[in-house]
Amino acid sequence: MSAYAERSRRGLRRGETASGWLFTAPMLILLGLFLVVPVLMALWVSVSDWGGRGSPFSGSVSFVGLKNYGELLLGGGLAEQDFGMSIKNNAWYVILVVPCQTALSLFLAVLVNRQILKGRGFFRTAFYFPSVTSSVAITVLFLFLFSTTGAVNAALGWLGINGPNWLNDPSGIFHFGATGGPAALTQNDFLGVSFWDWIGGPSVAMCVYIIMAIFTTSGTFMLLFLAALQNISGEVQEAAMVDGANGWQRFWRITLPQLRPTLFTVLTLGLIGCWQIFDQIYTGSRGQPAKTTITPAYQSYQSSFINQEWGQGAAIAFILFVIIIAFTLLQRWVLRERKVSRRRNQPYLDAAARAAARTSAAERTPDPTTPGGRR
Q1: Residue 165 — φ and ψ, nearest 5°?
Q2: How many CB atoms lie within 10 A of CB 155?
Q3: CA angle, 249 then 251 then 256, to 5°
Q4: Residue 373 has pLDDT above 80, yes or no
């Protein structure tokens, strides 16, 4: 290539690079002004004693280091107890919501993807409709449904079951009515919350929000799974059917492995959404009863806007950010592509070797019908 052609190519690349930066500059400026700058400001607030008045960068605001984080994690006071309770509530919320909504959305996607199902468009719309409804409206609806005289308790009454006082019952569902536990669990704590309360599970009141989350989010994730299912080639399914694989074997061995990228997306979005739950708590119980429905996002709001402890509120937000990143990396590691071990792959290698040997032997066998004696 001549020197002139090389200079022309470099000039063209520089022009393309400049055009790319020019077209993306407006969005980069917007992201910088409304995302990066506020995040950096919140980071400074989390390590300062700003009281919410004036500029956080004024001379009256002092740097306090990790004091706000220490009061939440190691302070031993009310702030640590409230933060520990919020983490415990949200952790059980994530543990119960994410698997249930993922399994339900995958089941709904497989159901509406079946060719023999009539009215598939109606069912897709019906399943997706709660996802596009206002979360505030859905929360108010569930407050009516799960009230003491609501439709849920009325339906349980028809079955002869005395329904609980859903929104006012702080007892853990895994305590099974026990009012106390072993001293080893009640007298030791983590983040100001006893081990007995940690293993007690979500409160009865928190279960209302768990049911509501599964109901409202499964439709959205159903569409993601449905799009992935429609991109899977039917030839592989037909080949498996010819080999004698039943429906469960085809789903477990063929369909589900091909849904791995979509499964990672659904789990990631589910984790982020569950750890950021706020508007349902704010509209509904506001952390009550007995703070068994408080979450880190709501506690961050409460510390900042109600208690005027802006440093603690910002610190909670960044701790929550670290938790979300950690869980995302963990599930990425769990769902990573793994190499097939040599032991599991050996039968396939042996079969391929035997097939190659048979082919080689057939090629060496003389064929009397062919001139030269070779097949």
Answers
A1: -85, 80
A2: 12
A3: 125
A4: no
